[in-house]
């Protein structure tokens, strides 16, 4: 049984001449090995000098979670690791990668689960099976093999190195115990011994959670220093090698310190760090990530030590954070590095699970800055060192205008939510994105857009900067910005919305020619090549077809402001202006004013859409009233009020003297169907049916109307009144109405 007095269990780890056993260890980085996940990538051949010994902590050589983790490597991975360290063995020697032996049985006890011997087992298989049996990290055993006998990297190892592989049973002051001689016994014995140390039953001098004076060297004159032993694993290593490195040993790296230097625990820490990551934080570095890390110097390189455990994205890949870089490995793709300031910005926008998804390249320097591509976009590092991502549709838009070499330049901020979607600002403009489109706008347009109220005044952008006949423009859902030789002119707010509804510059209004202005009346207006738009407070309407006609009538202050949109019916046009309106039958026909009572009536009857259609002449005063001709009839205003007659009635009315004849003025609305029309006048009525157009006037007319006119039993007239046999008569569909000499009536 081992004593609880501190005594080294190894042969070589504290030799005063530093690291004689390590003379063959410092070799150039080369190919590597698959660890666990991810993939089957490799770690560097030999030992890359990467561990930062300025961070060495004698009280925490390795974390318990690392020391006792026996799941870090399987036999295949251990074998590949050995083969990555030695490509070719010197003739006549057996290197560790090729070593095999028959193994014995070992019974299970409280420290290990035993071992079932087998024939011709490889060194990798023995280490793997022992690690499972005794609950020790196989990486710990691998590192101990290197620090004790250089067996991992030795290309011409003598057989005695295998006999004393881990220095188990080989105290520094006495010969080795023959019971522990041989590779298998060294591996199994050392792993089991670590569990005995960890138990704390027989070995208590370096118990964790206490401060111990630990020597620098077997020579007592070299002195000691107090060390607070933080954990069980560190305690076990001090039982195995009861010395701490002095400053000279730490300053020497893998080299020689001074006469009081010891190297066992220094070398354990360095080797583990250089091959597998810092053992103190319990963070493993495996596979393809380890390959990249080691190729860049490991913990002592520019990437620094791992700061987080490897993260797995099921079915997609892996990532791991280091002090100065993050490594990403997508399944089937090369590993990529993400470094500051891209790293911080990439993390901020969600990393792999964000809109950028996986990195697809390392950073590329360009134009004093740089960029890094991702599946979902690109991260730019500006010349001033700030990094911003450009992703999704914004990225596509930025690319469409030649990215940083184009009209927008470098991104100068993150994308942010706008009122209608997303926006990202660049040195020379912005990308405005909504549910319908994504457009690049240069700064002159963006600055004006923002200064005048942005989305609230212009709505969503619907075009990029579009060249046109007078310069260029940008269209919005509720506005327009026009660039012309004299500068920028804008149309926004209610005026802008109407302008867009009218088709913008391609519509009847054409290009904007003046800025918006408020008239003394309080009305807002803006001029265009083909007209103007007015916001009266009661509505916003464009005047285009009648712009010249309105001006010829004294303008809106004199004639009236538009009170409705222009109505179009084929070639006909009509638009109301308060109590007045303007209309014309075709582009070549004259424009006529419809005003006063007739204008009011025409407007209330749906104007151009009524049976009257467009005016074909001005209103005229006659016999105490007003009339105005239209394509579909005539409008009237008299003491009887306003009304209109269709052409079928006005033709009969005109033949009978019009308003100055016996029929006089209409007293109400015409009744019109697809085949008939009727209307009552002050002196009778006019009735139009398939039989023709006839009047009913005088006494017969009064009686016919009293009976219900065409709705009476008589039906529609089929002739005008006649003087027959001394009596007035008139024929109807269902009889003849006769006015007797005494003024009475009969139907024959």
UniProtKB/TrEMBL annotation:
It comes from the Bacteria. Keywords: Signal. Residues 1-34 form the signal peptide. This is LGFP repeat-containing protein.
